[in-house]
């Protein structure tokens, strides 16, 4: 169709590279005696290609010369979405290629030392990116939520040495085969739209923020370097077992040595060889927040490749298992009392921001949340590291959101989805906080192709990682969902008294009970209420409650909680509020400057619902965790603890 041709034109590069997962490891870049990191985020310059086909930048080869010589440029912070930075609605709503550029200096010794490998890494850029260094193309990448990198040693040594002009072109166009999917629609009625007018349609409920969303780094490794590490952990009695697998590139006879140290620096186990199992006596397990008095215990695993490379990986020793009624962490029942989030904030959009990350963790711990779901795409790895360190449990979700068009269940889409899971598992497999993979959110799982699609997707994900359960999030009716037979845990979203029977909170009890009994009756798998909630415009009040007031949001929550408290004695293993905070969406008649289902505002101030959840989560923690109330009272003022 015309729309698809247009989308292809916008994307320019063929989607042929879609099916190749990144070949090399995706170890988070850290410093070590053998590695240096230089953060080149900060102020970049920027130009949106506003030509009708969005192709002028490529035709005129904007990467060949300084971007400022091609036309007008503006300042653009990295990381940040570009959408809300300017006063220009055209930039906010821009679709197509934008160009970023920064001049950086590369330390001379990096260039001179031929044994040094220099890597350029982008934490993420939404959605499709092409990278040049000094005018030479070094890589391109499909997907808006995972890192990508290129070895630029050769280019730097061949071109102008220490000076390094980095050009990144980023395209936010979504097509039927991207994740999330979308369509470009050209409006052809000349009486209503000017020539060439097009819009981006999507089926998901968040703003399609774009740009360079996570830090851009230069880092070094020795030529012979540790490319990837995989750990899997288990324990028996007081012995922890860490199996490891190290892959080294650039050397045929790597002599790998692995040492595991406790938090006090004591070496607790070591081994030679690139594979093996470390035994840790008197193991300190990694426990979730509020489940143990010493949660989030991390060992530190130093991996040495002969004399050259050193990489240190935090390791949490824990197990995850699912029975027909329970989710077990370290063989103890775990109840998810947590939140769904978004990477979203004023001005920066989806741009990574440490103050925001730390604030959000403080808020989650304040309210007694022990878990969150990375709705609806993978978050920055720094966020997973925080969760590892604080014992916050994560359901790690892939950007399979808004898969509603039957054409998005085709072979090309499936291949890309499988590839995406490979990249996601490769990046996140070693995080103890990640306890489950979610391969999609609310797909049209009642459409016939969904049966085959999810069978493939779930089994492929399991083959990549057998140590974690796999799910997808459903909003389908239990009788029509074709993917549910394949998942380990049923995750259900429902909005009783909101999208159904608006205003009728008195129906929640009945409808929610029916929902749970139907799903459990059919599948005998544990269930998480993976979304529920109601919009509340902060400061709007009414009693008796009316929709959009803080009281209404509270009442909806209370009605859900009554049922959760019954069913969590049986097979309900968790509840995740939709949403942690208000967030931006595209403009529509059902959204008033974004989605207001947050229990915190977008500025992270509590609505009434936040206090309700806080009391509830701490009460549940007191009942289900091994903490005693006295300890909690010392950490948090008594008046907040029931
Ligand atoms: C759910 C979606 C979520 C939406 C939410 C809502 O999974 O992305 O934001 O509804 O409408 O169905 O608030």
Search tags:
eight-stranded parallel barrel, binds beta-D-glucopyranuronic acid, 32 strands, disordered C terminus, alpha+beta, 22% helix, globular, 13 helices, 642 residues, six-stranded antiparallel sheet
Summarize the structure in words.
Helix 8 runs parallel beside helix 9, helix 10 (508-523) packs parallel to helix 11 (550-567) and helix 11 (550-567) packs parallel to helix 12. Strand 23 (327-329) and strand 24 form a beta hairpin. The chain is globular. The protein has 642 residues and is α+β, with helices and mostly antiparallel strands. The model is unreliable at 12-21 and 628-642 (pLDDT under 50). It is 22% helix and 28% strand. Strands 25-26-27-28-29-30-31-32 form an 8-stranded parallel β-barrel, surrounded by 4 helices. The chain has a 6-stranded antiparallel sheet with strand order 3-2-4-10-7-8, with no helix packed on it. It has a 4-stranded antiparallel sheet with strand order 1-14-5-9. It catalyses: a beta-D-glucuronoside + H2O = D-glucuronate + an alcohol. Its EC number is 3.2.1.31. Its main location: other. Residues 224-318 form the Glycoside hydrolase family 2 immunoglobulin-like beta-sandwich domain. One of its GO terms (biological process) is carbohydrate metabolic process.
């Amino acid at each position: 169709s015309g729309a698809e041709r247009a989308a292809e034109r916008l994307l320019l590069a063929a989607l042929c590279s879609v099916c190749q997962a990144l070949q090399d490891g995706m170890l988070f870049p850290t410093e070590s005696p053998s590695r240096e990191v230089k953060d080149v985020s900060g102020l970049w310059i920027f130009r949106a290609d506003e030509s009708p086909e969005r192709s002028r930048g490529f035709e005129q080869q904007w990467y060949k010369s300084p971007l400022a010589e091609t036309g007008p440029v503006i300042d653009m912070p990295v990381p940040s979405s570009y959408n809300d930075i300017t006063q220009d609605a055209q930039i906010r709503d821009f679709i197509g290629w934008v160009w970023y550029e920064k001049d950086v200096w590369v330390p001379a010794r990096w260039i001179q030392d031929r044994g040094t490998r220099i890597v350029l890494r982008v934490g993420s850029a939404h959605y499709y990116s092409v990278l040049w260094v000094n005018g030479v193309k070094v890589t391109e990448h499909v997907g808006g939520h995972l890192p990508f990198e290129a070895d630029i040693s050769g280019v730097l040594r061949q071109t102008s040495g220490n000076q390094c002009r980095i050009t990144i072109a980023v395209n936010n166009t979504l097509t039927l085969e991207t994740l999330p999917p979308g369509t470009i629609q050209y409006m052809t009625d000349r009486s209503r739209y000017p020539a060439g007018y097009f819009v981006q349609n999507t089926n998901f409920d968040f703003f399609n923020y774009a740009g360079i969303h996570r830090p851009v780094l230069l880092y070094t490794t020795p030529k012979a370097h540790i490319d990837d590490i995989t750990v899997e952990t288990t324990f028996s009695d007081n012995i922890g077992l860490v199996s490891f697998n190290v892959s080294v590139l650039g050397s045929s006879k790597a002599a790998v040595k692995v040492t595991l140290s406790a938090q006090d620096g004591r070496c607790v186990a070591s081994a030679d060889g690139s594979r093996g199992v470390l035994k840790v006596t008197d193991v300190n397990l990694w426990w979730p927040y509020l489940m143990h008095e010493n949660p989030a215990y991390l060992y530190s695993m130093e991996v040495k490749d002969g004399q050259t490379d050193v990489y240190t990986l935090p390791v949490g020793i824990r197990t995850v298992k699912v029975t027909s009624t329970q989710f077990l962490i370290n063989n103890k029942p775990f109840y998810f009392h947590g939140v769904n989030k978004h990477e979203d904030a004023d001005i920066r959009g989806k741009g990574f921001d440490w103050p925001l990350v730390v604030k959000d963790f403080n808020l989650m711990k304040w309210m007694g949340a022990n878990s969150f779901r990375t709705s609806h795409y993978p978050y920055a790895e720094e966020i997973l590291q925080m969760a590892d360190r604080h014992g916050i449990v994560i359901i790690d979700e892939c950007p399979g959101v808004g898969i509603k068009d039957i054409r998005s269940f085709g072979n090309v889409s499936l291949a890309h989805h499988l590839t995406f899971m490979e990249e996601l598992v490769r990046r996140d497999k070693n995080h103890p906080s990640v306890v489950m993979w979610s391969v999609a959110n609310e797909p049209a799982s009642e459409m016939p192709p969904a049966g085959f699609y999810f069978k493939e997707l779930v089994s492929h994900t399991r083959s990549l990682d057998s140590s974690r359960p796999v799910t997808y999030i459903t909003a389908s009716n239990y009788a029509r969902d074709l993917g549910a037979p394949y998942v380990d845990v049923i995750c259900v979203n429902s909005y009783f008294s909101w999208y159904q029977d608006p205003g009728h909170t008195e129906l929640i009890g009945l409808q929610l009970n029916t929902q749970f009994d139907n799903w459990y009756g059919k599948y005998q798998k544990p269930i998480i209420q993976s979304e529920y909630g109601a919009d509340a415009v902060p400061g709007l009040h009414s009693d008796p409650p009316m929709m959009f007031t803080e009281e209404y949001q509270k009442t909806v929550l209370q009605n859900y909680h009554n049922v959760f408290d019954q069913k969590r004695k049986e097979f309900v293993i968790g509840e995740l509020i939709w949403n942690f905070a208000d967030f931006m969406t595209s403009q529509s008649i059902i959204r008033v400057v974004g989605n207001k289902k947050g229990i915190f505002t977008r500025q992270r101030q509590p609505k009434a619902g936040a206090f309700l959840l806080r009391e509830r989560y701490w009460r549940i923690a007191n009942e289900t965790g091994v903490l005693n109330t006295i300890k909690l009272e010392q950490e948090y003022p008594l008046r907040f603890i029931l």
